[in-house]
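User: I'm new to structure prediction. If I give you an amino acid sequence, what do you actually give back? Let's try with this one:
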Amino acid sequence: MERDGLHVSRPPLFKGQNYELWKMRMIGFIQYNGMELVNIIKNGIPTLIDKSGELLPFESMTVEEKRVCQNNAKARHIIMCALSEEEMSKVHAMVSAKEMWDTLALTYEGSKEVKRNKLTMLKRQYEMFAIEDQESIQSMVSRLQVILNSLRSLGSTISQYEINDKILRILPAK
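Assistant: Good question. You get back a string of structure tokens that encode the predicted 3D arrangement of the chain. For your 174 residues, that looks like this:
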């Protein structure tokens, strides 16, 4: 089933632009392929990696460790299939899917300090948000949604009540 260039059996392609949108689509794609993969990307596989950063020998792993190793391989494969050649060159040598995911996040979202600064800027944009002269309500709501989605992607949420109140307060009297 293909829609808008997306396919349920292929991960969304990332070419170095629109990281937040790609990340949102990737999370959905990875969840669709199994919540255990989300867990691998979130928590990593530290017990399966030796001090030199290599995977432990497969033969010495327990059945459970082999299952975790296989899920890591699936998650790595999904990430690699979702990246252009240029983006893949940044993470292809990494052993864990978590390391790959975190490297992309750091590259395109920045450090915690950068995220905090982005969050402060977006909150300020939200607070100062107003309808522009001759702007349609639909256009205004679309602009507001971009700010709200960016805030959500950085972990900040605003209740639907606050959003509705904001919209009602900024609408022109006419």
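You can read the tokens as a compact description of the fold. Here is one thing that stands out. The beta strands are 2-3, 6-7.
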